[in-house]
Design a protein that fits this description.
By secondary structure, the protein is α/β, with parallel strands linked by helices. It is built from 23 helices and 16 strands.
């Protein structure tokens, strides 16, 4: 048994959940945890998103209130003797210009380490919570997580993510833009909200429809308002996934809510004040998404971000790290990003395979980690996506596209490292004159140099994008990397390009490069000072 804690620092409130978790049981669909046993739940009505989405900064008083809440949570976690905890902050903190102040003060004043996560990580955690609760089998499901600052849309085929996007539309953001004052909402303002939501989700709706092939079996809602809406407009008929929202009834409810002020909603529908104002934009977002895909019901499994954090912590606590699964998930995300920019997927896969083989065979020289191996593989897969913008200078365009795209499974820093590795697969080597490279730490700059040097060799081995070299075998002889290139076609250009692009490898790892005939054998090694064998 483990005692775990999750802190969700959202745009509308800060929540704590402490739960006891037993080791997972083996089931036909994989390891599954029994329902978590609640030890403590707490909530602080701190609207972190107040003014962030219009003024771009967290107010000092709001930061102070957040730290006071986190002090209380820290005391509760200490009293409960939690084994692990994770505190995550979402869109309000990541979009504010002074989110780092919240992180620093939370650590110093409350003793809580806060991690500001991106929308793609938020979506991953929500997905963990949902798939732990709902058995999808082979069905395709769309997850809609409506938060205070953003809405995460994630398309699942079974438990595999095929699309994920964070849309800049959330309950507090809509209130700040259109609904301040707590007044009743007239038709003009409601249409403004609907048009804003439609614009914000339009690209994601198109991409989801394309990725799903027009078939989505289930719409699942998560977020603080979902349970309230499931109480107020429940689906009357039986629903296989349990509780669900009746979308037509929600549309009628939305009309009734709009007619009342926030104070009147509190009384009429028995709502908390900070729920009474967010429920209208939440219902609007859900209605527009449901309408876009033709759904009359939205499953409400009763989980959200903090439950996803608990599942993630439980997996870390009880289950060995699934490096293969992590690698597969990240590379799937890279493939999806590459296809968005119509990349040469066959070339990306080939270069990634060569890069990983070189990484493994050069391990005695670079001594980098398994995680660094994954970053190289991702950069190799995506190194040419800048061609979408323009071939000339495409390495720089690749950097920009990677650095500014969501890649599920990579942290913002890791994505920046991947972008830098791809940036230096050709042309000039890394330089402190380049802002993107200078911004990295000394350790990460060294990592980029070594991995970009390997990527240059791997890319050169498929110079013409024709897979003329089918496989490679590598060995280190003294200060030389010897590459045996196996293939049936003439590969003079590839071999020439490898040697032409080997300068960075010499600088980063102290290795020259030689292309060997695959039939050649390495000379037998001889210890220094030993006597050569006598031959007759």
């Amino acid at each position: 048994m483990a005692r775990l804690a999750a802190i969700d620092i959202g745009s509308n409130a800060i929540r704590l959940r402490i739960a006891e978790v037993d080791p997972p049981a083996v089931t036909p669909v994989g390891p599954r945890f029994s329902p978590f046993r609640d030890v403590l739940s707490d909530r602080a009505a701190v609207r972190l998103g107040h003014d962030v989405f219009t003024k771009g900064r967290l107010e000092g008083g709001v930061i102070g209130a957040a730290c006071e809440a986190l002090k209380r949570f820290r005391t509760a976690m200490d009293a409960a003797k939690v084994d692990r905890y994770r505190a995550v902050a979402t869109s309000a903190a990541r979009e504010s210009s002074n989110g780092d102040v919240l992180v620093e003060r939370a650590e110093r004043e409350a003793g809580v380490h806060v991690e500001v996560i991106e929308g793609v990580e938020e979506a991953r955690l929500v997905q963990l919570a949902v798939t732990e609760r709902v058995v999808l089998g082979s069905r395709t499901a769309l997850l809609v997580d409506v938060g205070g600052g953003s809405t995460e849309l994630t398309l699942l085929q079974g438990e595999r993510t095929v699309f994920s996007q964070s849309c800049p539309v959330g309950t507090v953001r809509l209130i700040e833009a259109f609904l301040e004052g707590g007044r009743a909402i007239d038709g003009v303002h409601q249409r403004l909200i609907e048009e804003y939501v439609d614009r914000a989700i339009a690209d994601a709706v198109r991409d989801i429809d394309e990725a799903a092939g027009g078939r989505i079996d289930l719409l699942i809602g998560t977020g603080g308002n979902i349970e309230t809406l499931a109480d107020l407009c429940p689906l009357s008929k039986a629903f296989p996934e349990g509780r669900a929202i009746d979308v037509p009834r929600m549309g009628y409810l939305l009309g009734e809510l709009r007619k009342k002020t926030v104070d009147e909603r509190v009384v009429a529908f028995n709502l908390r004040p900070d729920r009474a104002d967010t429920i209208v934009p939440a219902a609007t977002v859900l209605a527009r998404v449901a309408g876009a895909f033709g759904f009359g019901a939205i499953a409400a499994p009763g989980v959200g971000l903090k439950e996803g954090v608990l599942v993630d912590l439980a997996r870390q606590h009880f289950m060995p790290t699934d490096d293969r699964g992590i690698t597969s998930a990240v590379m799937d995300a890279c493939s999806r990003l590459g296809r968005r920019y119509h990349f040469d997927e066959q070339h990306g896969v080939q270069v990634s395979r060569f890069a990983v083989k070189l990484f493994d065979d050069l391990l005695p020289r670079h001594r980098l980690s398994t995680r660094d191996r994954l970053l190289l593989s991702a950069a190799a897969m995506l190194h040419d996506i800048g061609d979408f913008i323009r071939y000339e200078g495409h390495h720089k365009h690749s950097y920009y596209l990677i650095a500014h795209s969501d890649v599920m499974g990579l942290s913002p820093l890791e994505r920046e490292i991947v972008a830098n590795i791809a940036r230096y697969h050709r042309k000039s080597p890394p330089s402190l004159e380049h802002e993107n490279f200078r911004a990295l730490s000394r350790e990460d700059r060294g990592k980029v140099k070594a991995l970009a040097a390997i990527l240059r060799i791997a890319d050169a081995l498929d110079r013409e994008h024709r897979a003329k070299i089918g496989d490679i075998a590598n060995r280190i002889e003294g200060d030389t990397l010897v590459i045996e290139a196996h293939g049936t076609e003439d590969r003079t250009l590839e071999e020439w390009t490898v040697l032409a692009k080997s300068g960075m490898l010499r600088e980063a790892l102290g290795l020259d490069v030689r292309i060997a005939d695959p039939s050649s054998k390495p000379a037998p090694s001889r210890r220094k000072g030993s006597t050569p064998p006598i031959t007759s």
